[in-house]
Amino acid sequence: MSKISVIDLPYEATYLGFDIFIEANPDQYSEGFSWSISRDDEELDCGLDFEANQALEAAYKAIDKLMS
Asked: What single DSSP character describes residue 11?
């Protein structure tokens, strides 16, 4: 898993055929980073974490869970 930083945002990658998207939280009153995973233009899971690397790790874990 690669590390990402705020300057790399928005972040997009593909892992095991799933698309990962991470961006700064669109809610201007809350901090953090939102993440989502999708396949074939269908969002399968999403979440919010305090740090960009935590969001990336959560996305990878969600994909691994979908694959199991």
From this structure: E
